[in-house]
Amino acid sequence: MGLMSFVCKSRIMSRVAVSGLSLALMNPSAAASATKPAAVFTGISLSVDSPTVPPGGTLQMQVFVTEPNPILKGKQGVRFAAVKAAALTTPVTAIAAPVSLLGTIRDASLFSTGGDVSGVAVGKSGGTQVFFTSPLTSFGTALDTPVMTIQIPVSAAGTVGQTVDLTLDPNNSLWYDPASNLYPVELRSGVMTVGGTLSVSDVTPGAGIVQPGKIISIKGIGFDSSSKVDIAEAAIATTRFVSANLIQVTLSAPFDIRGKRIRVTNAYKELVTYYPYQRTTKQGTSNHPLIASSIPIFAQTSWKVGFFRPTASGTIFSGIALQNVNAVRANVVLRLTRNGVLLATQNVILGVKSSLARDLAEMFPGVAAATGTRLRVSSDQPIQMMGLLADDSTRTVLPINPTSTP
Whole-model pTM? Predict the structure, then answer.
């Protein structure tokens, strides 16, 4: 994996070097100049849809690129602004004290045509920063799937007409081309409006090839017998309305469902769009606040053995994230060594469709996972795994891909 270090440079940027790659974290003035569009724009143009979500529904914030460009790595900040009272359709005098419309971020996803993109969303309330890397640079090359989605519950106390700005932060927007050069960036933010009755909160299965006859469960609120489902290019064989919270469909041909557009409509011409992905149950919570406030986003590659090179220096530390998408539990063994000498071993049982993220200090209490050590992760089932390079001082958590050799 190579040397991992943080090197501070002037007031214009600080650069994080990881595995021979670097992620520049620029200050607001530098980021503003980087995002200024040229006369003929050839950079990354990002757009956020502006959905309508009913009270008690689920917002899936969807970020698209408007022109395909290969992306190697970067970060994007997202902020959720306060409620705009002026947008309310109900008289202000009839409304109690303002409520927080959006809850804590439930999870996030990244989509790439090669399935190679991984990332970490840092922060779960009021906004987040998503750090990402795409070794095959297939990230950003598709137009029919968002590059990023963020899923957040909407308060049941919301009032029709209330709005929340879904802001792409220009001061935390860095997108690198395959040669590690910064793209110029254009950002178009969106607005969520409270209204309607339809909302989709989850689709299972959310990833993999769905075979003919296998049930696809679409969960949400506001469904009725008039609800219709459309799934991208898939041929739907049957649709069954189960309840206001569940519709089940089957397909007539095999279909890779991850990241494919799903639309639900009703007789009132309401429309909700959702992009599925694999969701897992979080297995415990890290005691390290920065890791606990972060959401790992895994690449689609599975491993039975992977190697990492931890680092520790001041406020910088390493962590590990694991995800089991199998229908059986995975028995995972973590071995920490230095110069071939075993320092510590930790056994982890990763439940069915479960995930965890931890500071390595939690995995190996009393043994420092310091620079120069090696971490071997092995599993009896193929699982998704990712290293975490974190810095408490900057609240940065970078995704680190495993390697097949130490």
Answer: 0.86
